[in-house]
Amino acid sequence: MKNEDMHLDSMFKASLVADLLKGMTYIHDSEIISHGNLNPRNCLVDSRWVLQISDYGLHEFKGTHENRLSTTNIYQRKFLWRAPELLRNPSPPARGSQKGDVYSFGFILHELIGKNGPWGNIPLSHKEILDRVIDPSQYNMKRFRPSTQDLNCPDYIVWCMQDCWNEDPDERPDFRLVRVKLKEMQVGL
After folding, report:
1. Is 163 helix (H, G, I), strand (E, B) or coil?
2. Which end of the chain is less packed: N or C, by CB atoms within 10 Å?
3. Considering the domain 1-185 in this protein, what is its CATH number?
4. Residue ranges per domain, the chain?
5. pTM of the full predicted structure?
6. pLDDT tens-place string over residues 114-173
């Protein structure tokens, strides 16, 4: 998504978002319940340009040791999309949570629109970002999220993103409501 040479027009972005929303709604309605590790690496585009979600339902094989933060920057990168309540939990559920998936979706949307990584141009290491997400009060903040000021998109997309990032998981929309909030994006598909 960061490839500046690849121009994704608004229709293609809308199509990817629609595919992701359909897939996540399906996962949340299935016995799998939640993805638990939703990030762009798990959003694959097939030969027909349809987004397919991968790496779900594998929680039992991975084990809980993978939920702990390591000191290596590469390992920490995988947590940049993870919800704060899951990062703060010393024993998070292996399969994550539905509201955690919605939080992750907000970052994928931010990355797709901004084409600048999940946290935009924030000049911090992965560890510094995660420290602020886990305990924003330590940095005199209520919460820590990327800036949406420079995003070139309609306000309703930014508002939906911010709803997905709500600090309180109970206040985050489910994927059905996200689809409604982003319905205007689908015009013309």
Report:
1. helix
2. C
3. 1.10.510.10
4. 1-185
5. 0.89
6. 988 899 889 999 999 999 999 999 999 999 999 999 899 999 999 999 999 999 999 999
